[in-house]
Amino acid sequence: MNILITGCNGQLGTEMRLLSASHPLHTYFFTDVQELDITNREAIRSFVQEHAIDLIVNCAAYTNVDKAEEDELTARLINAQAVENLGAVGAKIIHISTDYVFSGDEHVPCREEDSVAPRTAYGRTKLEGEQLLLAVCPDSIIFRTAWLYSPFGNNFVKTMLHYGQERDELRVVFDQIGTPTYAADLAVAIFAAIESPEWHAGIYHFTNEGVCSWFDFTVEILRQAGVQCKVTPILSSEYQYKTPRPHYSVLDKSKIKRTFGISIPYWTDGLSRCLSHLK
Ligand SMILES: NC(=O)c1ccc[n+]([C@@H]2O[C@H](COP(=O)([O-])OP(=O)(O)OC[C@H]3O[C@@H](n4cnc5c(N)ncnc54)[C@H](OP(=O)(O)O)[C@@H]3O)[C@@H](O)[C@H]2O)c1
What we know:
Layout: E1 2-6, H1 11-20, E2 27-30, H2 41-50, E3 55-58, H3 65-70, H4 72-87, E4 92-98, H5 121-136, E5 141-145, E6 148-149, H6 156-166, E7 169-173, E8 177-178, E9 181-182, H7 183-194, E10 202-205, E11 212-213, H8 214-225, E12 230-234, H9 254-260, H10 267-278
Parallel strand pairs: 1-2, 1-3, 3-4, 4-5, 5-10, 6-9, 7-12
Antiparallel strand pairs: 8-11
Helix pairs in contact: 1-7, 4-5, 6-8, 8-10
Bound molecules: NADP nicotinamide-adenine-dinucleotide phosphate.
């Protein structure tokens, strides 16, 4: 297959590029905004035609949750309208979405068919992207993920390592519960869908296994990295968030495991592999 990977300089895009070396049967085209701006409908159409693209993996997105609140128009252009553009060119598509489509008020892991109710501009635009994509290309695969990190780009793991080395104490919320996702493990799951003998259209949830709070995540990051720093649990109400954050956004992964026959690493295991790459 000829596979186009958009947003290839981001966390997930970089992991897809690295993993593609282990899947040499396909021909890959890696693009980021400089080579192919996904908001440019005509540019996408001619790129897909020129390179006879069979499959698009859309790793491009507007991911800054706080900035999206101030500039929802741009977030919508990239997270929604551009996704419709990608879905309309006749190639198969695997698109990535987010736990932010849910309200965050749940108490049990969210399943794919559960009601959505985004509370942020980022979540609204990502949900719109899902809906526009499914309208124009019902045969799409959508992976919703959460708490993504990798050795590349900016993310929670790198931020906590940085501040943990600089400060005596970190105060981190313990009333927001979710599951970290190592982008390399998500890339493995995406390749399982690509190489599945049958194309299984639909929405799937993927994170690493297990559950923790941001406080627990921080304690484990510093413990595994051998960084000495006191970590104090605080409530969300004690932290000045610009944008509301979900209190509970654990995703139920039964469907993806059942459909693609994958087993998913536990979150502390993903973290240790990421930290060994960072060293
Ligand atoms: N990060 C998380 O915690 C998280 C959680 C849940 C779901 N997700 C979803 O997972 C996916 C991958 O996230 P990620 O963390 O890998 O994202 P990322 O690191 O922010 O990478 C996104 C990439 O897309 C590029 N991009 C932005 N606008 C573009 C455009 N118009 N055309 C082409 N490329 C463009 C970005 O370039 P610039 O950097 O130059 O803008 C960046 O290289 C996204 O769909 C995201 O919504 C992420």
